[in-house]
Design brief:
single chain, 550 residues, alpha+beta, 8-stranded antiparallel β-sheet, 23 helices, globular
């Protein structure tokens, strides 16, 4: 109901809903969006935060070296799996299963192998990019189910905010081409509208797919009805037919009389056949069943063959492990529509289908999305500046939003940069090292939340943005000084996972640096306030107002 007693129209109702759905959980949504955007480079973060891997440079003999290493590391294993280096991985990711090992992940052992030397690497303990990935949908330091419920509810509100925002701003697409700088509230609204429209398809797809991924928890009734309450049957359909279990398929170690020792054939001709068959992507991984026996089977899998529908079912070539002769490859099992749908939703949300250029585009869209969320929260403060000028003071609620804006937006950037710095500054042999990287992240974030209470609002923004810019900009130097490969080296060696991370950090440094420069050259908001109001404000207000934004 409006102040004049007339009922509100659709746009007015949507405006109210848009404002409060965005503000109430805006800080959480910003954190989820920012860490989720970083998760597009999860593998790149993982490689950079383990400098022990940076000397691993792939060449034509990498596959043979890795197989020789596995003969030393796990000679009795039932199966070997080698993930070869690629654009998002510098070392050979080895995994194997010992005879009689438990099924699933529990029975799988893993190691990193140097692509240049074939030596087993011992990288430092770190959660790296996996921390940001888990945080963006499970938060931290609470039961996972609670974190997922909180994030799920926040995602619902974000979806509501997106839809209501489009309805509220009837000229949103027209205003996309309009930006009026130095106009206070109008400038912030223009920026908010432009970033919202620029990546609107991305925002809708990411938000909706995120809700779908959590649908079993948020809305389980449809699945329960379709499967008559048998949820295990649903998850079996989602996973699909996995084929024969490791160690039980063709070539698996059998009874004792079948375990005749035999040398493994040279892998080079097999790799050459894989390169001929897949000229665009080459060989991505090698699986050896029953290695070291006469029943050994070598299976090559195409690299980069990540179909949205048939995720995990890339084309394969199968060879006799002793003679090296090409065998008939088994047909891929039929995929159910349930699994196909799940694969598409998951692949789109996580960007699993994305080639390097597409991944950078997704990252850019995520950055635009974070700015949209941030500008919306700042706009709430700027919009209420006239009211504060009339009062001559800053209401507690307004001051609280100011503090939370600084700490949640600029503070999160500082905390993320601090997380990367702690990765190199904490002693490598330190007990619980990975946990202390995460603890340090939250300690830095907490300090950034407290910082705006001690300094003026404008200075808090300026100092934290400038600090974030410096921390991000110096990360390549820190990497070089703490045993990592330089940006020049990684580019020359084609180690794009490490180079991409440092280029991303320099990009973040530039963004935060531009914001800090904009704040530094701006005039305080008080300059636009009438003299009487300024006098009242100095006398009555204990909290400074937002500068430059109004």
């Amino acid at each position: 109901m409006r102040a004049d007693g007339k009922p509100e129209g659709l746009r007015q109702s949507m405006s109210w809903l848009h404002t409060w759905s965005g503000l109430l959980l805006g800080w959480l949504l910003y954190a989820v969006f920012f860490t989720g955007t970083l998760s597009y480079f999860r593998d790149e973060i993982n490689d950079w935060m383990r400098p022990e891997l940076h000397g691993s440079v792939q060449d034509a003999d990498t596959a043979q070296r890795a197989l020789n290493a596995m003969q030393r590391i796990a000679p009795e294993a039932a199966t070997w799996t080698l993930g070869l280096p690629g654009p998002r991985q510098v070392a050979v990711a080895a995994s194997w299963r010992e005879p009689g090992a438990a099924t699933g992940r529990a029975g799988t052992k893993r190691a990193e192998i140097d692509a240049a030397t074939g030596e087993k690497l011992e990288p430092r303990e770190t959660r790296a990019g996996n921390f940001f990935y888990r945080f963006h949908f499970e938060l931290h330091a609470m039961p996972r189910i609670w974190g997922r419920w909180i994030v799920g509810f926040a995602t619902m509100l974000m979806f509501v905010a997106i839809i209501t925002g489009v309805i509220t701003h009837k000229k949103i697409f027209t205003d996309f081409f309009t930006f009026r700088p130095r106009k206070g509230q109008r400038s912030w609204l223009d920026a908010h509208n432009a970033t919202a429209v620029l990546a609107l398809p991305f925002h809708i797809v990411i938000t909706f797919s995120g809700l779908v991924l959590l649908m079993f928890m948020l809305m389980p009734w449809g699945i329960q009805a379709a499967y008559n309450g048998d949820t295990n049957a649903y998850f079996a359909d989602v996973r699909g037919v996995r084929g024969q279990a490791a160690g039980q398929g063709p070539g698996a170690r059998g009874a004792g009389q079948e375990r005749q020792a035999a040398a493994l054939a040279d892998i080079a001709p097999m790799m050459a056949e894989g390169a001929r068959r897949w000229p665009e992507h080459g060989v991505g991984s090698i699986t050896v069943n029953a290695p070291g026996t006469s029943r050994a089977v070598v299976e090559l899998r195409e690299g980069g063959g990540m179909s949205l529908i048939n995720r995990g079912q890339a084309e394969t070539l199968r060879f006799d492990g002793v003679t090296g002769q090409l065998q008939a490859s088994p047909e891929a099992p039929a995929i159910s529509w349930v699994r196909a749908t799940g694969n598409v939703i998951t692949g789109v949300h996580l960007g699993r289908f994305a080639e390097p250029a597409t991944r950078w585009l997704l990252l850019l869209s995520g950055v635009v999305g974070t700015f949209m969320a941030a500008s919306g929260m700042v706009l709430w403060v700027v919009k209420r500046m006239p009211e504060r000028r009339k009062l001559g003071r800053t209401p507690f609620g307004h001051r609280l939003v100011e503090v939370l804006n600084v700490g949640s937006i600029a503070g999160l950037s500082v905390a993320v940069a601090g997380f990367f710095w702690l990765n190199r500054l904490l002693p490598v042999p330190m007990q619980g090292r990975a946990d202390w990287e995460i603890n340090g992240f939250f300690i830095i974030w907490l300090l950034c939340l407290l910082h705006p209470l001690r300094v003026s609002h404008r200075n808090a923004w300026l100092q934290q943005m400038a600090l974030a810019a410096v921390l991000y900009a110096l990360l390549p130097l820190l990497n070089l000084l703490t045993g990592g490969a330089s940006l020049v080296q990684t580019l020359a060696n084609g180690q794009w996972s490490i180079a991409s991370f440092e280029l991303l950090m320099l990009g973040l440094a530039a963004i935060h640096g531009v914001v800090a420069w904009w704040l530094l050259r701006g005039k305080p908001a008080a300059a636009a306030v009438p003299a009487v109001a300024r006098t009242q404000a100095r006398a009555a207000s204990h909290a400074p107002t937002l500068e430059r934004a109004s």
